[in-house]
Structure formats: structure tokens, C-alpha cells
Amino acid sequence: MTTAHRPTFDPAQGKEALRGPAYHQRLLPAYMHLKVRQPGQGGDADGPRDMRAELLAAEAAHFAKTKGGVQDESPVEPTASNRKRELEDNVQENLDEEDMEAKRRRVLEETRDIDADSVGSDSESSEEESDDEEDEAAELMRELEKIKKERQEQKEKEELARQAEEQEQREYDIARGNPLLNAQDFNMKRRWDDDVVFKNQARGTEGKQNPEFVNDLLRSDFHRRFMSKYLYRLESLLYHTSYIAYSEQWIPKRQAKLYTVCPHNKRNPSLCVYRINTNVTQLLQRFENIIAPAKVETPDNTYTAVGTYNLNVEATALTRAAEDMLSLTRLMKEVWLFEKLNTVGEDEHETRRNKKLDEDASAVQEAVEEELARGSNGRTK
Count of CB atoms within 10 A of residue 287's CB? Predict the structure, then answer.
């Protein structure tokens, strides 16, 4: 049976659309510990059972209960577990007997020493001194043996405690040592697709400050720092360019033709042209000031190979942008002054351009004078 018609357990969502660090209950780890065999589930603790003897005993008990008779206490063959328990009891009894025998020998030795002391009391003083020395030596030997025995017992206890601790640690490692349940070993510090070009293109992902090493020069950290350093200068230049071209100080809004006189310089139109040329010259000088630092080579070798390559790329891009702005500014100036698009090209010589500008400026001045004369004649009429 197909499951294509059924919805998915967790629908596919974008990386930025995740709700938070919440997890579904079914995604949580269910079994955190490894189960071990308990007593009664097989192993060394559970030996082979005599099922026949147990069945006969249960059957005899049932018949005795139903018929009202007395249960036949027939001797049942001991099972493996009973035999093992009996062996353990016998071993414990033997150990107790050995302990009693050792205690009895120790008491006899002490009484023998006491008897020796009592018998030697009737001898001479020299013999008493020798007996006292022997008793002291024997007492010292007994104390030494006692100390050795206590140390041996303490060492055995420590060894048993160490073995129990090692066994507990081993069981814990077996239970929690499963790599599939240990999430700390599988925490990825960096994804395998962090350095691809077409990634994090959605709006709002540019503000992340995590260091990234991408193979896209337009989204590299160096490019962003460079553009943030010089982009505001380009914006200010564009603002000044638009101010020169469209401000009321130079071009009136209701002017019909582009080559008419400026409203603030009706009597001297050449002054207006001079001021326009001065402002455009200042604009070009600002572009050159921006381009100059990009073309200068630093004498020290502080830049790395990647930094030098990125600097060359940025300098080339900035130079091309400045050249485009220069050409657009010159074209805008010519269109505003003379209403011509083909008077000066980017490839023409500078002397021809200056000569043509002078001729057009004189023609504009003559047209302005004629317009002023015509207006004065109309007023007199």
C-alpha cells in the first residue's frame, strides 16, 4: 500500500523559517540506557532445571488436594541450583571449622606460654629473665603477625572495592557508550555546504556576523568592508552630480530650452557657464581622489596573496565605475549646455573638446543677447 497520499510527519521548511529549538516528542531519545541481563533471565546464575521432578511434585500436590489424601513426600532429586546451594553451604561450614581450629590453636599457644611462665617462676632469676625475654619476643612476633594480617585484610578490602567500582564504571560505559545516543560526538561545528556560492541569498541573512570563507568575491568579508568604507563617498558624489544637474540654482523648472540663460545671471551668461565648469571640475577631482588610493602600491609586504588579489579586484572595479561616472557627467554637461549628444565623445582629443565648448558657449551667448534684445523691443512696443 502506498503512502504518497499521506502528509509527511514534518513538512519541509526553509532554514530561516524554523520556529525555535523545540522538538517533537517522537524525536526525543527513548532508550538512554543499555539493558543488561537480570537474575532469572539466563546466564551463569540460572542452571539447568529438572522439569520432570518439578512436574511430578506439582502433580502429587494437586492429587493430594483434590482427593483429600496425604501428599507423598517422595525424595526428589536435587536440582542444579540446589546442588550449588548445598556446595556453597558446605564450603561455608568448612571455612567456619577452619576458623575454629585456628582459634583453638591460638588459645593453646597462649595457654602454653602462660604455663611456661608459671613453671619458670620457681627457677632462678637468670632463667626468669631469659623466659621474660622469650615471652617479649613471642609477644612482638604475635603483634607483628597481627599487623601483617590487618594490612592484608585492608588490602583485600581495597582491592574488592576497586573491582566493584571498575565493574560499575564498565556497566555505565556499556550503557551510555552507544555513539548513536551520544549527541555530543555528532555536533557539527560547520556544515559541509557553508562555502557554496548561491547560499543565504534571502533578505535578512546578511546581518550575520559569523566569519565565513566563501568563494564568491562579491559576498566576501573583504568586499563588504571595502564597499562600506568607500560607498558613502560615491553616494555623496552622485548627490552632488544630481544637484549640479537639477537644482534651481542653475536650471529653472519652467525653462523651455536647455541652453537658455540662468535666472541669476541674466546679464552675464558666461559667468554661469564658468561656474558650471568649475563645479564639474571639482566633481572630477573628487573621483580622482578616490581612485588614487586604490592605484597606489604599498611598499611593505603586509598583505597576503588573497588580500592583494582582492585589493586589485576592488581597485579595478572602482576605476571602471569612476570612468563610467566621468563619461556620464561629461555627457550630462554637454546635453544641459548645448542639447547635443555627439559633440564630444570619450575617445576625442581634449583640445578639440575645449575648442568646441568655446564655440558653443559663444553661440549661446549670442542667442541670449538676441533674446534679451527681442524682449526689450516687445516691451517698448
Answer: 20
